[in-house]
Amino acid sequence: MLYVMYGFLKHSPLLRVSARPVHGFTLIELLVVIAIIGVLSSVVLASLNSARSKGTDGSIKSNLTNSRSQSELFYDSNGYSYANICTNVTVAGVKSIFAQVSAAASNAGISSVTRNAAGSGTVAVCNDTALSWAAQVPLKGTAGTFFCIDNSGYATTTNSTKITSGTDYDCTS
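The structure corresponding to this sequence follows.
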């Protein structure tokens, strides 16, 4: 009886062993690996976008901060006046801050700088008078944030526009 059972099982398709060894991965194993790679790549891409926007914001802040020292050179060359510092002019070989403010606006994705106007989330502004100036550009990293700098040396990142009118030359209010 045992022999008969053994003989029956010997020819059973359940116990057949292939003469060729099986190589490769199953479909489930491949799908699991692809899913893991997908999750890891999405985490890396999210981190990369965050770093890119922080870098852009850093560039905007750097351009505006550099405009402070340029403004003092312009002030001395312009007869101790900030008049027209927000325009693209050169006085006695010293350029205005227009190039720095324009570069900051360009980094924020804004094509032009509006002079003597109120700031908003889509506008880069530079206001000037003979006695003072202020510039503000929206940041890209977080919607609704701005970087504002003025002639007093005050620079701030804020969640609301600091330049609220065309005659506003102060980032502290």
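The longest helix spans residues 27-77.
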